Amino acid sequence: CEDCGKSLIGECKLHGPLIRAKDRVIPSRARLTLPHYLTLRVLELRAGNQQILGVFAKKVIQKRTQFGPYVGQLSTKLTCYDESRLVLQVLKDGGKYFLDTPNEDCGNWMMFVRLARNQEEQTLVAYQHCGEVYFTTVKPIEPHTELKVWYAADYAKFMEASAVFIKEESDVSPLLPVAKEPVDPWICSSCGSTFATFALLESHQCIHKDRV
Prior knowledge:
With 212 residues, this protein is α+β, with helices and mostly antiparallel strands.
């Protein structure tokens, strides 16, 4: 304590505690890459202050607007799985790799885009081009609308997933197939989570093996 000239363990009983000044919080790499006309919103707060985020438009975004490429770490197995986000893979040098984003400092804002649960809420398609993954809008996105993504037709085949049919104007790409009949989900025996394809279930089970 500089007032009484003593070295103390803990607070000075005579002059009280120090006034603590905290460093300014620096946004992560992923948050800093967010375009100015997009914003992140907290949709849910789970245990341990875990935030469930969504990406929303601040102004009208035109159809056929391309975002990307998606930034992630190439990995032979998925180390970070989130059931609300797409699992992404790419072909590199003849091998098939996951685009993994274990934390916000090794990805870009596209890691926050949630998957579309049906054709009405889908606004983006994900596809692979020259070993990179891009998202492109399939219709105009109005302000305050959340950006949600699903696989494009060819990429869905590559990912062994079903395609979501987007019913829009007559000039929608004919490559987008009509939705298939629903199939029985694949269920994880460890935690009970369900997945649309065996490939997604297999990737998810890698996490359980690593934890064991």
